[in-house]
Amino acid sequence: MEAILILKQTKGAVRSIDIVRYMEFSKPSVSRAMSLLRENGYILMEKEGWIELTDAGRKIAERIYERHRLLSEWLIALGVPEGIAAKDACRIEHDISEETFEKLKEHISKQGK
Known about the structure:
Blueprint: H1 2-11, H2 16-23, H3 27-39, E1 43-45, E2 51-53, H4 55-77, H5 82-95, H6 98-111
Antiparallel strand pairs: 1-2
Helix pairs in contact: 1-4, 2-3, 4-5
């Protein structure tokens, strides 16, 4: 969902092939993921293949993307190379609790002042 949000913001419209290229996953993997997201009510797929996030999907994607951006920026500020920071942020963003993320966000904002 995060990839859909990012691609929508940068390209304006998103299809499965865009996600394949962006995430460097196989077409079957992305197709399966899109099927699951559609079944769970997070995306809508038009007959032409265009993908849109539902309100529920957008809410989750925005939360995950906020985590990704904050964690990436924080790791880079600590001296972690950008590529490694982005990969590590992806790992962390999905596992960290909401409470821990909020405390980390508060701490980082205090450090930036």
